[in-house]
């Protein structure tokens, strides 16, 4: 019978994490945002597309790896553990804020009305954009959910965590029901609370609900804690077949529970409904089971697995890198063919769109962008350089 140590790292976990990061980079960077294949778009409000799975899958895996990392402290809270959690939480959040500021700086710097200003005044005006800084977002959500789930892992008895998840989900559902939370307008309690606390200039969009807002962090925390519980189930057995069976069992139960309850609580990533969390965690668990069977049990490894492993060992660094690369590729203008464009515009308008059409060219650009980031990640992977964020 084939077995593996409960402490042995599962290659499938790194590969799946790499797939989610590559997917997040791809769907965030189309060649033409107005020409995208439907499966590569987020659901507008209610419902779910394949694109809506990549971020939840990553958060599910983050829950599993939180279990692995907290096991080093024997799940006991110490000053050292608390300080490390605090530092990592602050680092991830601050990086998210820095990226938001960098985009604001670039947009302000490029405004035509600021171009005639003296250099230092121009620079100061561009730097002074904190009043329009988005406070929440993908990185801050990861920071909050990691920090809280890690503290819970060290301070709460693990047998109570599933009940705590249930309280989070039920409490959030009650908030949605009583606060018009399913309405796609400004009467939604999620929008009203973000508007009141953060202000319109610190949200994703002043006139739209923030998909990583304050209240939707509640089910997002439950989402990560589901991953934590799955990590506990996964690592409490040594036999690889038992790991796969547990992943499949959890996956089926969560997926069907989410779909069943969706008749009363619709699936929606925008407000991260409890049913969305259940369904996506279930699909993630089943997907991981298949990958563990293929990669760690059957040994189906090769160029494809190594491609995604390069993303999986430095996931957040490459995600941040992709955001930063958007500035020189998509935002910095220059004249080409008598009109102002960008490197993205030139590659899409003059090469990819003529070859593959509107949507095909947009997808081709996204894949090239992923490949650019992979080249950097592969160098780090080959040199065994792991940048921990």
Keywords:
disordered N terminus, 389 residues, mainly alpha, globular, single chain, two-stranded antiparallel sheet
Terminal-residue CA separation: 38 Å
Indicate the radius of gyration in whole angstroms. Answer: 22 Å
* Secondary-structure class: mainly alpha
Low-pLDDT sequence parts = 1-7
Total beta-strand segments: 2
Spatial strand order of the main sheet:
1-2
Q: What portion of the residues fall into strands of 2 or more residues?
A: under 5%
Q: How many helical elements?
A: 13
SSE topology string: HHHHHHHHHHHHEEH
Main sheet: strands, sense, barrel: 2 strands, antiparallel
The average pLDDT score comes to: 92
Helix content: 55-70%
Outline: globular
Structure in words:
- This protein has 389 residues and is an all-alpha fold.
- It has a domain at 1-41 and 302-389.
- Helices cover 66% and strands 2% of the residues.
- Strands 1-2 form a two-stranded antiparallel sheet.
- Strand 1 and strand 2 (339-341) form a beta hairpin.
- Helix 1 (11-28) packs antiparallel against helix 2 and helix 2 packs across helix 10 (274-297).
- It is globular, with a radius of gyration of 22 Å.
- The relative contact order is 0.16.
Provide the fold topology.
Layout: H1 11-28, H2 51-70, H3 79-109, H4 119-127, H5 138-155, H6 161-178, H7 189-197, H8 217-235, H9 240-261, H10 274-297, H11 303-312, H12 315-331, E1 334-336, E2 339-341, H13 343-382
Antiparallel strand pairs: 1-2
Helix pairs in contact: 1-2, 1-10, 1-11, 1-12, 1-13, 2-5, 2-8, 2-10, 3-4, 3-5, 3-12, 5-8, 6-8, 8-9, 8-10, 9-10, 11-13, 12-13
